[in-house]
Amino acid sequence: MNVDKAKKRIAKQVKKGDKGYPKITLAYFGQSADIATEVVISFIEAEGAEPQSQKFVCESDVREDETIQSVLVKIMERADANTVSEVAGTALL
Q1: Torsion sign across C-alpha atoms 68, 71, 75, 81
Q2: Most buried pick, 11, 18, 60, 87, via CB within 10 A?
Q3: Is 37 helix (H, G, I), strand (E, B) or coil?
Q4: Could you tell me which residues come within 8 angstroms of residue 28 by beta carbon, excluding any fewer than 6 positions away?
Q5: DSSP string covering 42-84, please?
Q6: Are residues 46 and 22 in contact, defined by beta-carbon separation less than 8 angstroms?
Q7: What's the whole-model pTM score?
């Protein structure tokens, strides 16, 4: 999947807002605010359930990595997430 297409699909899901469970949260981390070298995707199936997380790491910006962005979209689709949220900005490592 094209990186721009994947980013648009993720942004579209985020814009829908809170629609209940299951929920997915995306958080980006990096050495500076400009480049995110890690992304953590967390999945919560139901209220009170333990979150399941997976981390993806890249030497360049993960937001521009076609493979990682495509995998994030596939995870959201397979989880049939009602809510997708994204932590604003890039947290520093």
Answers
A1: positive
A2: 87
A3: coil
A4: 36, 38, 39, 62, 63, 87, 89, 90, 91
A5: EEE-STTPPPEEEEEE-SS-GGG-HHHHHHHHHHHHHHT-SEE
A6: yes
A7: 0.92
Phi and psi of 64, rounded to 5°? -110, 5
CA distance 23 to 7: 18
Diameter over CA atoms, the chain: 36
CA 58/CA 69 separation, integer angstroms: 11
Q: Measured between alpha carbons, how far is 13 from 62 in angstroms, rounded to an integer? A: 18
Q: What is the DSSP letter of 16?
A: T
pLDDT one-digit tens code per residue, 23-55: 999 999 999 989 999 999 999 999 999 999 999
